[in-house]
Amino acid sequence: MLLVSLKGICLLLTGFLCGSTLYSSLVEIPVRQQLTEDEQVKNWKLIFEKAHKLSKITGLITCILTLVVWFLTSNLLWIICSFTLLIILPYTIFFLTKTNNVLLDSSTNIGLTKYIRKWNNLHHVRTIICFTGFCIAIIASFA
């Protein structure tokens, strides 16, 4: 019963991560692109503060729980799922942090459109990674 619950929690959390990145890619980014440059940066900053903290905590918990399920089941799909989600951390550090810092540290919101566009494109890659992890979790849950 505990194992079934852990699998369900892992599936729920990977689904949450996938859904949040997908929502950002399909809704927030296209809507933000319709705003003025100043409004785009203000909007990005508002969303970033909340989303950054939430996704970091959720991602960490999800990775730990998927490793626990892998340990309990010896199902390699769970460790592959965990690894897929862990890839997001170095990807973010090496590819997004500089862009995030430029957007966060700017005293003016003018001249930042190229950074917003760059962040959007880099975020789409994270969406694909999360979607892959979620698909793996679905398969692992029923294997």
Explain what the structure shows.
With 143 residues, the chain is mainly alpha-helical. Helices cover 89% and strands 0% of the residues. The chain is built from five helices and no strands. The chain has helices spanning 2-32, 37-73, 76-86, 88-105, 113-142. It is elongated.
Shape: elongated
Distance between the termini: 16 Å
Low-confidence stretches: none
Q: How many β-strand runs? A: 0
Order of helix and strand elements from N to C terminus:
HHHHH
Q: Give a quick account of the main beta sheet: strands, pairing sense, barrel closure.
A: none
Rg of Cα set: 17 Å
Summarize model confidence as the mean pLDDT.
94
Determine the structural class based on helices, strands and strand pairing: mainly alpha
In terms of DSSP E residues, the strand content is: under 5%
* Estimated helix fraction: over 70%
User: Given the structure, what is the number of helices?
Assistant: 5
